[in-house]
Design a protein that fits this description.
The complex is a heterotrimer of chains A (about 425), B (about 290) and C (about 55).
Chain A lengths: L14 H28 L14 H12 L2 H11 L6 H25 L8 H4 L6 H25 L8 H12 L1 H24 L11 E2 L2 E2 H29 L6 H36 L16 H20 L1 H4 L2 H28 L15 H24 L6 H5 L2 H6 L5 H4 L7
Antiparallel strand pairs in A: 1-2
Chain B lengths: L1 H5 L4 E6 L8 H9 L19 E6 L9 E6 L14 H5 L5 E3 L6 E3 L9 H5 L6 E2 L26 E2 L5 H13 L14 H5 L5 E5 L6 H6 L5 E2 L2 E5 L7 E3 L10 E4 L3 H5 L8 H5 L10
Parallel strand pairs in B: 1-12
Antiparallel strand pairs in B: 1-8, 2-3, 4-5, 6-7, 9-10, 11-12
Chain C lengths: L11 H41 L1
The chains are: A mainly alpha (about 425), B alpha+beta (about 290), C mainly alpha (about 55).
The complex binds iron/sulfur cluster (2 copies).
Chain lengths: ~425, ~290, ~55
């Protein structure tokens, strides 16, 4: 039915089957939209946030998707600046994942603020000292960059590409993609960091406060670093899921091993820095403010030392080591374990830096505050996930996303029988021409 | 003295915890003075709006040694590290919707500009900031009692104690009208909680003005604390302390108590630390 | 925030921050996209012109 839209030579499931699947996920989207509507209509009292938890599930989701969605930027950086050409096999997908993550982040922010119609005040009345201002600026513009990187891929759809204007537009955008990518790189660096800064500058919150290097708290650098370390895990995980669902191999082993190796070294170096930071905070910063570090991990039902252990060792050191060693890295089961642990680790770090910060009592007579999100919060947090699944499904079906799909799934003999194919589909989208 | 008056004001208060009976008059007067709305269900204290909130503290001992103290907590109008005006909340607000008044030391909240990101709430360790989770509502007829001097707040934004800024404006207007604009007499500008407290536990005034009672009680040290350069304005009165002073928030609300365990509740101390620093008060030159 | 508006201050923070993170990206992205679109429009017109001949 929609075969005219499907990339030439690609095999896709039947139209009804595909849209049945989309409908199921679409129901989840509707559920999310309902919650969103309720929140806009009735206000944030629909959530379980309170005056202790001004930041909660949403801000965590925001930080988490941005942390794992950094792949677009780093893949571009490695491919264009460090000339690691192997990454062309995954760059389209990384851009799509990035697009989904960043649009989700903006969407969640739009739901989260109490007066959405005033959202533009952050630009108009900008306080240049606030980390959140920096986040808003860079997030919005980096999202614009991602959209620009994504557009040529859309225009390469078989039908769109027949329109002369679109064909030329896509071509021209490829032509100056380096400029866009460089702008994106600068923005991405700043907003990853300033998201870390959001927690690190709060000097009224000894749990998240960190000493500064010039105007930047250490969390600024740790967040950038961790995003650079964990994006391959998420990109590989989503690729793996897509491969499982489609029943096809979409990215070659060489690329996968390379990404895993990058992740391994980056995670390990990050986790060393993070451990040093934690030790410094626990032995110098917190005590100077009158706190023993164990204060932050005791007398409550959830946040114990196990959390620290899980974040740093189980989901930090372990995946780092597993991905560094060739034998474990190239073992598909252990690799999968490592990338799952990695994704959990970075999400846990963001959780700790948002939710645990709010939970810890600071005044000596204050108490721990725990929180369970309401269904409206959960639905609006799952909404972007469902939307992401739909977008990935659509792009996979209609756009030439994976340049290696042909060679990995329909070996050469078959190709000889078919009409000449491949060429347009195999072209990496963000390649400079 | 003229010189002294030309300097910027620095309004602040000192609350005598030994006088406070925990009656809650300050809370009530604050709510009615500042048009704080009502909720159908006020049982969830993490969602009710109480610009002034009275905490109950105990010494943790069992009967018959139990002692209790009530601690009223308005917004502390932090001056931030080094008292440069970068309060925890002001420095983080992305839209400059909360601002530091360098002429008064008061931390303002601009209701029409706040877009409800709640970053300031996360940054404030005193929980002095409150979000309007609901549309503001008053019981039938009560809206007739609203003060015309204070704008009510809409849903989705943050509010907090303003040190009854409208009263400052009125006092300033009066001073202008009377021709001596620099001289706002102490009694002309007093917050609602101060005037409502039946025990006279709250003293409010200009910390920069030696003629004001609050200055005389607190005796703020104008120099940075030699032990912690971020702390300015430490009290030279051994019975006076501030909440979480070590964080460098430089609050303008001071507390007074004769009892050591009460003073110790004001901040966090490592084991054994309190005994070492409890006798350290403000400027070393004054002993 | 625009230069010369009432909140603007001529200090390093504002110039670097607003200039570098607001106006520079708007400028670069806007100019880049305009360039691509105008060039594509030009090429499209030329294409169709050629096909007519
Ligand atoms: S007490 Fe809280 S709200 Fe008041 S100035 Fe300090 S940080 Fe801001
Ligand atoms: S909630 Fe309002 S006052 Fe607080 S940081 Fe956000 S915009 Fe500023």
């Amino acid at each position: 039915m929609d075969s005219a839209l499907i990339p030439e030579g690609a095999k896709r499931c039947s139209f009804p089957k595909f849209y049945m699947g989309i409908a199921v996920v679409g129901a989840v989207v509707l559920w999310g939209l309902l919650a969103w509507g309720l929140i806009y209509w009735k206000g944030l009292n629909q959530t379980n946030m309170n005056d202790y938890y001004g930041f909660a599930l949403w801000i965590w989701a925001d930080l988490a998707v941005i942390a794992v969605g950094g792949g677009a930027f780093f893949t571009g950086l490695l491919k264009y600046i460090f000339k690691i050409d192997e990454l062309k096999n995954i760059i389209n997908f990384a851009v799509i994942i990035g697009f989904i993550c960043y649009s989700s982040a903006l969407l969640i922010l739009a739901i989260d603020i109490g007066q959405p119609l005033r959202g533009w005040f952050i630009f108009w009345h900008a306080n240049v000292h606030s980390m959140l201002t920096e986040v808003a600026f860079c997030l919005s513009f980096y999202f614009a960059v991602l959209t620009i990187e994504f557009i040529p891929n859309i225009l390469e759809n078989r039908q769109a590409n027949k329109v002369s204007f679109f064909h030329h537009l896509a071509h021209n955008m490829h032509g100056i993609m380096v400029i866009f990518a460089a702008t994106g790189a600068a923005l991405s660096f700043f907003h990853q960091g300033s998201l870390g800064g959001v927690a690190g500058v709060m000097f009224g919150r000894p749990f998240s406060f960190r000493e500064h290097l010039n105007i930047w708290p250490y969390t600024f650098f740790l967040f950038t670093w961790s995003a650079a370390a964990f994006w391959p895990c998420f990109t590989l995980l989503v690729t793996k899921i897509t491969e499982t669902i489609t029943g096809k191999k979409l990215v070659g082993d060489k690329t996968v091993h390379l990404l895993s190796k990058i992740a391994g070294w980056m995670i390990t170096s990050y986790i060393i820095a993070k451990i040093i930071d934690t030790i410094y905070w626990a032995t110098v910063t917190a005590p100077s403010l009158g706190f023993k570090w164990t204060h932050f991990y005791s007398n409550n039902a959830l946040y114990g030392k196990w959390m620290l252990f899980t974040e740093l060792i189980l989901c930090g050191v372990l995946p780092g080591v597993l991905l560094i060693m060739k034998s474990t890295r190239e073992n598909s089961k252990l690799r999968l374990l490592a990338i799952i642990l990695g994704v959990i680790g970075v999400c846990l770090n963001r959780w700790v830096m948002v939710l645990q910060v709010m939970a810890v009592p600071v005044m000596p007579f204050d108490t721990w505050a725990l929180y369970i999100p309401s269904w409206q919060e959960m639905a609006t947090t799952i909404l972007p996930v469902a939307y992401g699944i739909i977008l990935i499904a659509l792009t996979y079906r209609y756009l030439p996303v994976f340049p290696q799909e042909q060679e990995l799934n329909y070996p050469v003999e078959e190709e000889a029988v078919d009409e000449p194919v491949v060429a347009p589909a195999a072209e990496p989208v963000a390649a400079t021409e | 003295m003229k010189q002294e008056h030309n300097k910027a004001h620095k309004f602040g208060m000192v609350i005598d915890l030994d006088k406070c009976t925990g009656c809650g008059s300050c809370m009530v007067s604050c709510m009615s003075e500042n048009n704080v709305p009502f909720k159908d269900d006020e049982s969830d204290k993490k969602k009710s709006i109480t610009w002034m909130r009275v905490y109950k503290l105990t010494n943790g001992k069992s009967f018959p040694d139990t002692e209790i103290v009530y601690m009223p907590r308005p917004c502390q109008h932090c001056g931030g590290k080094g008292d440069h005006g970068h309060s925890p909340c002001v420095s983080v607000c992305p839209a400059t919707a909360t601002d530091y008044g360098y002429d008064t030391g008061i931390v303002s909240q601009i209701y029409t500009r706040c877009f409800g990101c709640r970053y300031c709430m996360g940054a404030c360790p005193y929980h002095a900031r409150y979000f309007n989770w609901w549309d503001p509502k008053w019981p039938e007829g009560m809206e007739k009692y609203l003060s015309p001097d204070v704008s009510p707040r809409m849903r989705g934004i943050v509010e907090k104690c303003s040190f009854c800024y409208h009263r400052y404006q009125a006092a300033r207007d009066q001073a202008y009208a009377e021709g001596d604009k620099d001289n706002i007499p102490e009694e002309n500008y007093q917050t609602a909680c101060t005037t409502a407290c039946p025990a006279g536990a709250i003293v409010f005034g200009d910390l920069n003005n030696p003629e004001h009672k609050v200055h005389q009680i607190v005796k703020p040290d104008p120099h940075p604390d030699p032990r912690n350069k971020h702390v300015v304005g430490k009290s030279r009165n051994p019975k006076v302390f501030r909440l979480l002073e070590r964080l460098g928030t430089n609050t303008k609300v001071y507390y007074l108590s004769d009892r050591e365990w009460v003073r110790k509740q004001g901040d966090n101390y490592l084991e054994g630390e309190w005994d070492k620093i409890k006798n350290h008060h403000g400027d070393t030159s004054h002993g | 925030m625009l230069p010369f508006c009432f909140e603007w201050v001529w200090d390093l923070g504002h110039v670097l921050f607003i200039g570098g993170l607001l106006f520079a990206p708007i400028g670069i992205l806007g100019a880049g996209l305009t360039y691509c679109a105008v060039k594509a429009a030009y090429e499209t017109i030329n294409d169709s012109g050629e096909s007519h001949h």
